[in-house]
């Protein structure tokens, strides 16, 4: 299975468990609405920050190789600014 299938299946499973808990009168989330909002906000901010950091930096082996090519071709970095 690919990642998407696993994620969709996991979310479906959580939703089904939640429905069963609601049917039997159990509180699926023992948190206040404000706490849920705060947790969701922190998770969203963390994931967004991590994703943008990863995408905007040369952290992988492929990314570092790309940066070397860009610098060699004088397309990024201090070399380009000093050539102006």
Can you describe this structure?
The protein has 84 residues and is mostly helical. Helix content is 74%, strand content 0%. It is built from four helices and no strands. The longest helix has 23 residues, at 33-55. The mean pLDDT is 82.
Descriptive labels:
about 80 residues, mainly alpha, 2 domains, about 0% strand
Alpha carbon gyration radius: 23 Å
Count of separate DSSP helical elements? 4
Helix content estimate: over 70%
Distance from N terminus to C terminus (CA atoms, Å) equals 51 Å
Residue share in β-strands: under 5%
Outline: elongated
Which structural class matches the secondary elements?
A: mainly alpha
- What's the number of extended β-strand segments? 0
Question: Oligomeric form of this entry?
Answer: single chain
Main β-sheet, in a few words? none
Give a quick precis of the structure:
The protein has helices at 3-23, 33-55, 61-72, 78-83. The chain is mostly helical. The mean pLDDT is 82.
Topology:
Elements: H1 3-23, H2 33-55, H3 61-72, H4 78-83
């Amino acid at each position: 299975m690919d990642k998407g299938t696993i994620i969709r299946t996991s979310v479906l499973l959580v939703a089904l468990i939640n429905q069963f808990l609601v049917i039997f009168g159990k509180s699926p989330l023992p948190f206040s609405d404000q706490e849920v909002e705060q947790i969701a906000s922190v998770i969203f901010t963390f994931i967004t920050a991590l994703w943008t950091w990863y995408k905007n930096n040369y952290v992988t082996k492929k990314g570092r190789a790309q940066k070397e090519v860009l610098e060699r071709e004088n397309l990024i970095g201090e070399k380009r600014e000093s050539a102006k």
